[in-house]
Recover the amino acids of this structure.
């Protein structure tokens, strides 16, 4: 049985062996698919994959597991990165569309920077941090309210940038899965992003953080917010035109400025 370790660096030549191929070709783990993924790794310049993280598949630690992909760490040009691998049972035939939209977000400074990609794999910037609910829970001590305010501003400003280019993330009604917070805040996962929907990045995020999300009451208390109906009103006003002026009113109402 494989013993869990904090970090296990595996050369790509060994990834076709068990138990690693269960990750590369998840969930079936077939050898042919695994070998195809290894070829893609080579084409991207990936030479080693690091198995570590807070998610466990079997006895293997990874960064993340979603409905369409598995995320692990890897080494690219001597730098630790995030490597997103399409699941074999994904309802998407490739990661091409996701990469296009993530690169569009990158142009505004939003999302992990895409370094390289192929049909089934995306090599991107590794963002350090924890999910936002855990981060809020652990945020204590002198100056913590100032830090909270700063990170929330970062998140909302990124959402406004996405709104400004007409790119709807599509999953920000649950920030725990799609926002990571550390020394800075970052929005992840552009799998379901779209240029064809009415954008709701700012409003969905604000509703999660201040109105209906599991940490909303704690955040309002920390920032001294009591007028929930007033928050709802400025969000409704923002929906009408998504202007800089109406966005500024949201930040003001939330006591972030």
């Amino acid at each position: 049985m494989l013993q869990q370790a904090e970090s296990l660096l595996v050369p790509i030549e060994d990834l076709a062996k068990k138990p690693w191929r269960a990750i590369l070709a998840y969930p079936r783990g077939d050898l042919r698919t695994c070998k195809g993924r290894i070829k893609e790794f080579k084409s991207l310049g990936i030479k080693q994959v690091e198995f570590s993280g807070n998610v466990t598949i079997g006895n293997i630690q990874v960064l993340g597991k979603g409905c369409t992909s598995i995320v692990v760490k890897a080494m690219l040009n001597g730098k630790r990165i995030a490597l997103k691998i399409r699941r074999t049972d994904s309802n998407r035939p490739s990661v091409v569309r996701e990469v296009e939209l993530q690169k569009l977000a990158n142009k505004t400074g939003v999302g992990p920077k895409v370094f390289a990609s192929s049909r089934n794999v995306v090599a991107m910037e590794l963002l350090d941090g924890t999910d936002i609910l855990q981060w809020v829970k652990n945020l204590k001590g002198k100056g913590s309210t100032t830090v909270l305010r700063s990170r929330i501003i970062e998140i909302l400003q990124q959402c406004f940038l996405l709104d400004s280019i007409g790119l709807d993330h599509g999953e920000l009604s649950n920030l725990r899965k799609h926002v990571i917070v550390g020394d800075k805040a970052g929005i992840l996962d552009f799998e379901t992003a779209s240029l064809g929907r009415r954008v709701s990045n700012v409003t969905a995020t604000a509703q999660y953080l201040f109105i209906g999300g599991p940490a909303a009451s704690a955040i309002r208390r920390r920032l001294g917010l009591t007028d929930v109906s007033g928050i709802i009103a400025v969000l409704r006003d923002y929906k009408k035109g998504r202007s800089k002026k109406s966005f500024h009113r949201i930040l003001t109402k939330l006591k972030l400025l």
